[in-house]
Please model this.
Amino acid sequence: MKPAKRINGWLRHIPVWSLYVILPIPGAIAFWLAISGQAGPNPVQALEHEYGELALRLIILTLLVTPLRQWTGVSLLKFRRALGLMAFFYVVAHLSVWLILDRQLVLLDIWKEIVKRPYITLGMLGFASMVPLAITSNDLSIRRLGAELWTKIHRLAYLAAAAGAAHYLLLVKAWPPEPIVYALVVASLLAVRAWWSVKRRAARLARRSCDG
Amino acid sequence: MAYKFKSDLKYSDVTPKSVWINRRSFMTRAAGAAVAGSIAGPATAAKISGTVKSQYSTDEDLNSLEDITTYNNFYEFGTRKSDPAKHAHKLTTSPWEVKIDGMVGKPGSYSFDDIVKGVTMEERIYRLRCVEAWSMVIPWVGFPLAVLLERIEPQSEAKYVAFETLVRPSEMPGQRRGLLEWPYREGLRLDEAMNPLTILATGLYGEDMPNQNGAPIRLVVPWKYGFKSIKSIVRISLTSEQPPTTWNMQNSREYGFYSNVNPEVDHPRWSQASERRVGDGLFSPRQPTQMFNGYADEVASLYSGMNLVQNY
Model:
């Protein structure tokens, strides 16, 4: 049996619901460390960064599902919705830490920051683009919207990933490695999509000219 | 990840604050006794003897030694706040030479011992405001930079003081990457350097400077953003021209030569109107940032008539 098939066989034994149990754990641990004074001298920032980074990692995982299947045959497709919803969960957690703990819900200041600071504008754009994704991540929505429209809407994931990576890159001083690595990974995953789309269009054109 | 801050430091490694405070009152008594000439003050390992209090100290709550030594920006050791605590122990700080050159009457290579010989060490409890909008209160031990400058006799044409940090990639892992252009450079106008608030610090909490805080000798300029307070100094030059400074070289639009703490002039990417006092826990609010970090009475006159928006 091919390794990809064997891996897919194992994956079949992992129920999707287990992701909703496992993936919140690092967030809960980070919260416990921050509240109990074990997350360093600046727990607000530590928590903010932790949730932001977890969100970005999960977004990247959702974007990896299709290329992984194409290139290796390993299919994580059944986990993609859970990965995406958990990514949204961490984006909301990240945003909540900023709004409540960092900015103490001072709404005027928050609004000024959103419109004035490009990295925050981008972060909010990423969050906003994930709201329709989260709302429509269920079977009923796919049926109601139809597969074609639903797929189109879910291309917002590309925007969310790009906004998230840029948000990180724009808030650091100098050029530390982490945001650059995330940005390169996201850029490659989006480039793969662009390349596929070009190829598909070329194939369509070729087919059309044959028919003609 | 944030919770890896604790990877090599246990709570038991850190002396409780109450003990520090008691020890400090002991130090004060010891200092008084030393002045009276009743004890010779044998130099025990890391303690700095003969430290006197200063009128420039704030009475705000101190950050713990743990806060001060585990949350550092010292890119020579890496970009994470926890990197300096992890890597700085490799730094050799003795012997230590500081090259003094440029427009001075007494240039030369000065050893650390030579620089601090005969100098009265003061405890200076200062607010430190980072350009990243967080702050601490730190009990430095040091002496006015003016004391050293007077000793090395600046020439009349000298207008600026330039500083450089050690370059030693074998002990400073951050320098093996091109994060910034090494050596780290900073500078002050001569009148800023002569201001009594400007100190060369050789310790904190009454003991020798921890490596991650810029051992063995660093600058502290409390009314400017933290990056101006250059660490682990190996060169001090007097110049007539404004010297190049590292963050200004890296991004001149964001980091000016002056970099005075100013709540009304935002960093292009974030607000400087408020700050987070590090060490106050998860539910502490931000606090408003003060002009010149609260040292306006002492330093505002240095900039009278200057446009502080243009000269950020």
In short: The interface with chain B takes residues 29-30, 33-35, 37-47, 49-50, 53, 101-104, 112-113, 116-119, 170-177 of chain A (CB under 8 Å).
